[in-house]
Amino acid sequence: MKNYSAILLLVLLSSCSSIRKHNEQRASCIPPEQLKEDVDYAYSKLQQMHPQLYWYIPKQELDYKFDSLKQTITEPLTPLQFYFKFQPVIASIREGHLSLRIPRKKFTKQEIKKLEHTKGLFSRFEYYIDDDHMYIVQNKDAIEDIKPGTEIVKIDNIAVSDYIKKYRSLISSDGYNTTFHSYFLKDLFFNFYTAENGLSNTATIETLYKGEKHTYTLTRESKSETDLDKDKEMKKRTQEKKVNDYVAASNSYNRSFKFLDKDSSIAYLQVKSFSRDYSDKFYKETFAKIKNAKSPYLIIDVRNNYGGSLHEINNLYSYLTDKPFTLIKPSQVTSKTTPLRTNYFRKSTPLEYAFKSIAYPSYFFAQAFSTYKKDGKTFYKMKVDKPTKPNKEAFNGKVFVLINGGSFSASSIITAKLKSDKRATLIGEETGGANDGTVAGFYSYQQLPNSQIKFPIGLLLVQPNIDFQDSKKGVTPDIVIKESMQDIIDKKDPQLDWIKNEINLEKEKSSQ
């Protein structure tokens, strides 16, 4: 027992020391020559491992951007300052999955526990971004009675529009799509903000509502015992929470299903993330309900779904077709050794490291023989690029799919496939992910040697099995309907309403 306590103490001390060193390094200034080495290192790794680096930007133009960046580095910078200079160049590659990781401050377990006992400063609002303006569309706790539709003009005397312009340059979608930016930026804005300004206990915001200006002071409040009990309850994993993929942070489900009318003729399936966890069970139960109800219409909602598992979307597609299909084309990699660059031991605890060490030979040989050559190119073997049979419970009725700029990655893969196969009618706005695929799959987690900024690089070229349009944009809807800020505030859904109205018209015609 004494030995166990001593080991535990050493682990805790080591963890604290590691956090302290990280934060000290984050605050230190790095000489220009070392920062330029990091730029060269990053570009070298991209050229080695990224299978479609010059998809949206010519090599000559990207070379110029990297060289120009180095010329602007003339004085020592902190890792955070360096990040804000370097990330816009990475974003210019126009690969939405490709991004430097912002160098954030690390917190000890005690600091994290203290934060968990307080309410967020900015996270208690929901936001909407339009051009260079940020609006509050939901005030969850009725803080200061701030009305939905209120614009935040300044935070601690700094114009929000300045922040938006700065942070927008850090974000890219796949290709020349523009709908993605506002969705992703509203979700990431305060990640950037707190990395730059720290976690404060108070903030002064200047607002504008119906022509009137107001100033409010936001305060980080302590949670009540009721709040803490509610947090504990939300973290409990019931079977329902597992199957519907419950997210405690937002108190919502990633997957949900219901019928929209009394006669169960309209089935509505919403997927906010293709996380894969318990998804096989969810879809099996969901499509059994649809079949039992004999529903002629199915609405699939993948708005604000940033993507996830290829296995899950392949499984979902099997419920939507009556014939064998192949979801994606063979996935290209840069070389046969690429699958071995995936940082097998990343984020392993000492115990996990021990088990992984035992299993490593099996992993090594599996990855070493996971590629094949064809037409002078190297491809990675995947189940989802092979023919898949339709599920016995497959839905044969009419399918509508709701999409928007927040539909990214795997959401774009499956919607591009559905549209190409003419299996669904797409309603909403252009997806944030590209129609012709993306580079992701799995990653090599690089770290720049001097700034120590993390730089994950996607290794697989993942493309839907369709005839490519080469539009360099997202999946376009069959029916374009945009959602306004007022729609969100009023909890109206013009995109879903269009589908319901269309179905009602079809029902009326068929009954005549």
From TrEMBL:
Pfam entry (one): Peptidase_S41
Q: Which Gene3D superfamilies match?
A: 2-enoyl-CoA Hydratase, Chain A, domain 1 (3.90.226.10)
In which domain of life is the source organism classified? Bacteria
InterPro entries on file: ClpP/crotonase-like_dom_sf (IPR029045), Tail-specific_protease (IPR005151)
SMART domains tied to this protein: TSPc (SM00245)
What CDD domains does UniProt report for this protein, alphabetically?
Peptidase_S41 (cd06567)
The segment(s) forming the Tail specific protease domain are 211-482
Its signal peptide is none
Q: Where are the transmembrane segments?
A: none
Write the protein's name.
Peptidase S41
